[in-house]
Amino acid sequence: MKPLFSILHTSARPDKWREIYDAWISAAANPEQVEYVLCVDERWGFEPGFVGLRIPSECTPEMPYGSRFGERARDLVTWNTQRRCYVDGVNTAAKASTGRILIVNADDQWPCEGWDEALLNVFPKLARPEAKDWLENRSEFVIAVSTGTPTEHERGILVMPILSRARYERLGYVLYPEYESMYSDNDFCAHAVQDGCVLDARHLLFPHRHPLFDPTAKMDKAYEAQNREEAFRTGSVLFEWRKRIRFGDALKEAEQIQGWMNPRELAWLSLHASQMDSVTEIGCWKGRSTVALAAGCKGTVFAVDTFQGTASEPEHAELLRSNPNPLFNQFSENTADYPNIVEFVGTSLEALQNVPASDMVFIDADHSYEAVKADLEAWLPKTRKLICGHDAWHDPVHRAVREVLGEVSFAPGTAIWYKRLMETDKRPVFSILHTSARPEKWREIYDAWITAAYRPEDLEYILCADKRWGFKPDVLRGFSQVPGWLK
């Protein structure tokens, strides 16, 4: 019989996990219904046979799933051989789990007494048919609990994700796999709210003892890796994009439109479009990739196509013959929900005089060497940040791209080539404008604002000083190194 609960514990601390494990098993009212999946990583110092664990001989990083440990039959250890990060650890543990309710645990996450019965009491009377369905895997749900993390619910964070197996199996992950750590819990929460499947159990407290707000906890290398600036930056971009595409629903709509781009390629286009204020697409067909671009881009997507197909492509002619509805009409119907799409009917070169320069240009029109080269030479001067295209491994395309652009990059797992023309925007989120008339006072205000900020790296602090109020040129004296955000 499958367990009711699976605890997914990804650990970065060989000396810490056992304390957490013991706490959760001891606090369970019915531990026999609990499966404990511990995910470990050699890169964090774990070795086969690490202290405190009865490891079977077959439990090695080369055999990452399904190795039992300890005296309890429902204790399982699995090895993370993907990226060394929190998200991959959680998703690796989930793959090995079998329980009907999945609980994400960590080295600093503690249970409340009788936590398993407390969670079951969240369901409307278990005798009701809908409650039975939840527990029999036929419905999706997420349970929102409290962890004591400051303003967690106001900020839209579920620090300790809890979800049904039905939801996990439909999505294919617990935490969206492109995150490393930061913003993965925001995503988990916002996605569940969008889907209307959150059960409120915020009266239950599962203490989260993190050094940012618990003085008894200490910062270490694992926290530093998880909270580093790059994880925040990439997580923020991903989360904004995920909200724009309705956590994947928009891309599923794009996938229903006939075309040749696979889901991974559509996601790549949409994510990169989300970082641009404008996009031009050369070659749109029925709008499959256009919808992906428009779902991501917060500005205008210019769609350029003759809507006659390519004469040298027999498949185009056959598809056009099989559907009497003109191609432009099909495109318009498929893209009707996106007012940020502006169509231009004509050739790529004809559009040059009518379509303005864009941050991103995507070329996927006529794939002959001559046509690709002409498109590249024409549109490169009108591209500000990113130029890219499809069918990178088609020899005429590959040859034209190399001749015009030189070395280019390729999106993993796709046929997309791309070249960045400049760094994407890394401007601060906030600019604090402080005009001061008190040389002895401004630093106190500055320190208060920077200290109170949740993410000071997102701030730009501009101090406007005036020598007529007694400020001197060495106003920034006292900083051993002036922070990048202070001007």
Can you give me a brief rundown of this structure?
The chain is an alpha/beta fold and 487 residues long. The protein is 32% helix and 18% strand.
Give a verbal description of the structure.
This protein is of the alpha/beta class and about 475 residues long. The protein is about 30% helix and about 20% strand. The protein contains 17 helices and 17 strands. The chain has helices at about 15-25, 85-95, 115-120, 130-135, 165-170, 185-195, 220-225, 230-245, 250-255, 265-275, 290-295, 315-320, 325-335, 350, 370-380, 395-405, 440-450; strands spanning about 5-10, 35-40, 65-70, 75-80, 100-105, 140-145, 160-165, 200-205, 280, 300-305, 340-345, 360-365, 385-390, 410, 415-420, 430-435, 460-465. The strands form 4 sheets. A 7-stranded mixed sheet has the order 11-10-9-12-13-15-14, with helices on both faces. It has a 6-stranded mixed sheet with strand order 3-4-2-1-5-7, with helices on both faces. α11 (about 290-295) links the parallel β9 (about 280) and β10. α6 packs parallel to α8, α10 (about 265-275) runs parallel beside α11 (about 290-295) and α15 (about 370-380) packs parallel to α16.
Question: Got a strand count?
Answer: 17
- Taken as a percent bin, the fraction of beta residues is 15-25%
Q: How would you classify the helix and strand content by structural class? A: alpha/beta
> What is the residue-mean pLDDT, rounded to a whole number?
88
**How would a textbook summarize the main sheet?**
7 strands, mixed
